[in-house]
Amino acid sequence: MKPTYPRGLIALGIAATMTLSACGDSDEPSSTSGGDITIAGVLANTSDPFLASVQCGAAEEAKDRGLTLKMYTSTAIDDNETASNFQTATLKTPSGIFADPFNGQQFVAQYKQLMQKGVPVVTTTGTDPRTEYQAIFSDYNTAPFADEALSGVSDGPGSMLYMGGAPGIPPLEGRTLPFLDAVAAARPDLERLEDEFSGFDTNKATTDATSIIIANKDLKLIVVAAGPDAAGAAAAVKQAGKQDDITVIAFDAIPPEVAALKEGTIDVLIAQNPFEIGRQQVGALVDYLDEDHSGPVPTDQEEIAIPSKVLTADTVDDAENSDYVYKASC
Q1: Rg (the chain; Cα; Å)
Q2: Backbone angles phi, psi at 303, to 5 degrees
Q3: What is the pLDDT of residues 191-247, one digit of tens each?
């Protein structure tokens, strides 16, 4: 069972609820799914391009399937706002629902009630014990990316820095720690400095990275867990004129990270595929509903881990990588 956790980056915003009808271009649905199916999606922190891209993927799948998708979103991470949106969504009696609460256990009771009534629930934050029909999330196995990502780091001893955003956030640590372990195995000659945590503040990340660069002349590698810190690391490396000396490897692919990748102040991005997560969330619900089940929904489906991918300046604009580049809106 995938561990439960609060997920996403910390962002401030005002709660917003929106309804999106996603229907086919003609009167006939584009698949076997009928137009009488309505899917509800509950997402928090859609000011984060990752979550915004999940929503875009869900909308694409709903349009392809010829069904109605209604989104209930907020730009903040407040559990009360998410709960209000979830309640609103369920009161509309959707055919199925996908949800991405920061607290994976927040809606266990509600999931059980919906599933008993025959309404399938899909999440990216699997509950323990399992109460949802399906869990679809980003694969945490990032260790295999280490060799490719480290190819630009010069040989010989030196130091490396991990910029983790904030400590104790399982989705960040779940993706980054396997990679860091692989880096340590591949490059034992790189001494790991004390980790830096900015609280997802780009200005603080820039200041801290600048100080660390000045204090550690042998710094060769910076690994960054999230977008705001990646932007700060890139700015610090640029200000120091160290683009040729320090390799920056960052997770995710928000617009500022992609810009820095193309500029050369970030060397490698390890990006998730939020569009595919959104598509498969909707697809799993519709596939179940198309089978015309009766009675409670089962909870024994195999979980689905969506692979991440390494992006470089040479590959980021390739058509096959478009789903790994996060968008702030559809």
Answers
A1: 21
A2: -70, 155
A3: 999 999 999 999 999 999 999 999 999 999 999 999 999 999 999 999 999 999 999
Same domain, 168 and 264: yes
Identify whether residues 135 and 207 lie together within a single domain: no
Tokens 């500029």 correspond to: 263
Domain co-membership, 242 together with 253: yes
The domain that holds 262 is classified in CATH as 3.40.50.2300
pLDDT of residue 14: 27
Paired with 172 in beta bridges are none
Do the domain assignments include residue 6? no
Tell me the H-state helices in the chain.
Answer: 49-65, 79-91, 108-116, 146-149, 170-186, 202-215, 227-240, 255-263, 274-290
Q: Is the dihedral of CA 68, 28, 282, 76 positive or negative?
A: negative
Distance (Å) of CA 272 to CA 31, 37, 125, 253, 283: 27, 29, 15, 8, 19
* Domain interval for residue 86: 38-139+273-306
Q: Which two tokens stand for residue 63?
A: 């349009």
Distance CA 56, CA 201 (A): 26
* 181: its two tokens: 């372990």
CA atoms of 252 and 240, how far apart (whole Å): 24
Task: Scan for tokens 């799914």, then name that residue.
Answer: 33
